[in-house]
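Re: that backbone. Tokens:
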């Protein structure tokens, strides 16, 4: 609710500013010859962060009509269970943190299509543009098993302990012998692909020269739906819907 209230205040200020500019006529498009028009396509690349995970995204927008633009958005992020808890085994030395009960890691690739609406045009280098957008599309999920390094007796030397990468199963692994996470590449050949759907909607604030590069800050909501209920946590009920607010920052260019 706090995020939506802040966005509402920002949008209200943006609308008031645009109305003032249009009424005064002091900042018309003709007077800003250094800026290109708002009919240009744009693309941007940035980082995405939310309570559900982190990742990268790319977006391309192509003007349509009536202040609308066609949107192609593709992102790749991790997807987390909201009850994940990181712990550290302190019964042995030189250990590293791991997530208790997390038997699989989920990563989502989301190619999405949608529309963007211009709420406030950026009419000079010192102003801010505001866009609202919504897009949806399929989700390609990558479910990778979790491997942990577990301390075991060396079969060739009963007096020595060695660290062995082992697929995590809380029923079969003594938590007192866990050293930490194995290499990310361990078990990557066992990754399964699962299908789903995604919905992404938000508000973008952008600034900078339209004739060159610009920067943007974006806030919104991202929803992932996996009908197969991917098994992430061993001891908790796994979900079909993963949703969260997100924030992203990006650099872009008109062309």
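Recovered sequence:
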């Amino acid at each position: 609710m706090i995020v939506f209230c802040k966005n509402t205040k920002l949008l209200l200020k943006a609308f008031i500013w645009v109305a003032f500019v249009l009424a005064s006529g002091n900042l018309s498009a003709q007077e800003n010859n250094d800026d290109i028009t708002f009919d240009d396509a744009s693309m941007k690349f940035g980082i995405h962060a939310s309570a559900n995970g982190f990742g990268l995204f790319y977006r391309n927008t192509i003007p349509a009509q009536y202040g609308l633009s066609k949107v192609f958005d593709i992102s790749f992020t991790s997807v987390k269970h909201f009850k994940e808890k990181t712990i550290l085994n302190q019964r042995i030395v030189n250990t590293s943190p791991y997530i208790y009960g997390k038997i699989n890691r989920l990563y989502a690739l989301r190619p999405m299509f949608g529309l963007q609406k211009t709420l406030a045009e950026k009419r000079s280098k010192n102003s801010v543009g505001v866009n609202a957008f919504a897009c949806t599309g399929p989700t390609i999920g990558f479910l990778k098993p979790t491997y942990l390094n577990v301390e075991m007796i060396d079969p060739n030397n009963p007096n020595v302990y060695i660290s062995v990468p082992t697929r995590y199963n809380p029923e079969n692994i003594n938590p007192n012998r866990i050293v930490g996470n194995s290499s990310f590449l361990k078990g990557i050949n066992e990754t399964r692909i699962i299908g789903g759907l995604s919905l992404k909607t938000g508000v973008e604030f952008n600034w900078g020269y339209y004739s060159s590069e610009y920067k943007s800050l974006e806030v919104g909501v991202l929803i992932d739906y996996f009908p197969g209920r991917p098994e992430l946590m061993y001891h908790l009920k796994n979900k079909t819907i993963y949703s969260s607010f997100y924030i992203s920052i990006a650099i872009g260019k008109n062309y």
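Residues 1-8, 18-37 have pLDDT under 50 and may be disordered. The domain at 2-254 is CATH 2.40.160.20 (Porin).
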